[in-house]
Design goal:
Elements (H helix, E strand, L loop, with lengths): L4 E8 L3 E2 L9 H16 L8 E5 L8 H8 L8 E4 L5 H15 L4 E9 L36 H11 L4 H20 L10 E3 L7 E3 L11 H5 L20 E11 H6 L6 E10 L9 H12 L8 E4 L4 H11 L12 H4 L3 H19 L3 E8 L3 E9 L1
Parallel strand pairs: 3-4, 3-5, 10-11
Antiparallel strand pairs: 1-8, 1-9, 2-8, 5-8, 6-7, 9-12, 11-12
Helix pairs in contact: 1-2, 3-11, 4-9
Length: 389
């Protein structure tokens, strides 16, 4: 018998800037807050949960899903699994939970992600020889073999801008739209119901309650964006203003079998209909959402015109525009409440945040289907379709 995996609860923290409101708090601590709130909102008994699956990219080792589950006060008997599919980790955590439910492995899962780019540890290789006189060097993570190409993410965006002849002006205009839409969403309180305020201790005085995304720049202008220098190539077109931010945040969703939700008299928010992943050239990794979207649409039997809300992660404006060139996306459906350029990109948590945003926007706009998709460092794309209940 085919089993539906339904989302019954979805929350997130406010998104902080790197070095901002959440910098003093480890990711498993604020991650625990969203787990507790997600469970509280549906009133389930924690001992009935089968597993916690969390995305994370920069913890530096260990199993942060298990750590976060224990931090949240869940039973020692409850396991935890951390997934690192780079920027697709949060989405993949959700789909792994859905696949476990559909296969009959369990009935209730916590899925999501947590990330602190403020507290990311440094990566340094061990010397090849004992007592080496060569000083150690910090380095980034390798995402693909050098023979294929392992460029910094900003260079992949420049590669797409060149390949698709995307102008600096187009990127600035897209970035401005992201900021404007985000500012409007905050002003209208569209995120209020999905956000879990985080209490932040301070050295002196009362703790601060962090409850609003702090990365957006609502006063952004096209004139200001046009004055920014290229960030990655001297004669490039990609700037800090047309790139996603470095951020701290967490998100958690409760995912159940439909049978279990009915048994517990819980009304689902959405059903996970289909998911897909795809590989692409690492040198243009930002095009990943294109094949992933085509695959997930084929799996779901839907056409792009039937999708009401599209959450396409804004790693870079050039990257989103390139995907648009291939998919011909409706601008009135795409990132209607802003995206990572305006709210930031806490790597392992972003996918779950996008899913949470999509769920609440479907409800607000009376939409039916949402597509959540992201490019992935190393040359991948991931896409998921959910249906509102």
């Amino acid at each position: 018998m085919k089993r539906d995996a339904v989302i019954v609860s979805a929350v997130r923290t406010p998104i902080a800037r790197q070095g901002g409101a959440l910098a003093s708090i480890p990711p498993h601590v604020f991650g625990a807050e969203v787990i507790k709130e997600a469970i509280k909102r549906v009133g389930i008994e924690p001992e009935h949960i089968d597993d916690v699956i969390f995305g994370n990219v920069l913890s530096g080792g260990g199993n942060i899903a298990r750590l976060t589950a224990l931090q949240s006060g869940l039973a020692i008997e409850l396991p935890g699994l951390t997934i690192d599919r780079q920027c697709g980790s949060g989405i993949n955590a959700i789909t792994l939970a859905a696949q476990a439910i559909k296969s009959g492995d369990g009935d209730i899962y916590i899925a999501g992600g947590t990330e602190s780019m403020s507290r990311a540890p440094y990566l340094m290789d061990r010397p090849e020889k004992a007592y080496s006189s060569t000083p150690p060097q910090f380095r980034g993570s390798q995402l693909s073999p050098k023979e294929i190409g392992d460029p910094p993410m900003g260079i992949t965006a420049e590669n797409l801008a060149e390949k698709y002849e995307i102008s600096r002006e187009e990127q600035d205009e897209f970035s401005l739209r992201s900021q404007q839409r985000m500012a409007k969403a905050i002003e209208e309180g569209r995120f209020d119901a999905q956000i879990v305020p985080i209490t932040v201790p301070v050295r002196k005085g009362e703790p601060i309650v962090f409850k609003t995304d702090e990365h957006p720049r609502p006063n952004t202008t096209i004139e200001g964006l046009s004055k920014l220098k290229p960030a990655f190539l001297k004669d490039g077109t990609v700037t800090a203003g047309s790139s996603s931010g470095l951020n701290d945040a967490a998100s958690a969703l409760v995912i159940m079998s439909r049978e279990k939700a009915e048994e517990l008299n819980i009304t689902p928010l959405a059903t996970i209909r289909a998911t897909a992943v795809a590989g692409v050239d690492p040198n243009i990794m930002g095009i990943g959402p294109v094949p992933a979207t085509k695959k997930v649409l084929e799996k779901s039997g839907l056409s792009l015109s039937e999708i009401d809300i599209i959450e396409l992660n804004e790693a870079f404006a050039a990257q989103v525009i390139a995907c648009d060139r291939e998919l011909n996306l409706d601008p009135e459906k795409l990132n209607v409440n802003g995206g990572a350029i305006s709210h930031g990109h806490p790597l392992g948590a972003t996918g779950a945040i996008l899913a949470t945003k999509a769920i609440y926007e479907l409800k607000r706009s009376n939409g039916r289907y949402a597509l959540i998709t992201a490019c992935i460092g190393g040359g991948q794309g991931i896409a998921t379709i959910i249906e509102a209940e």
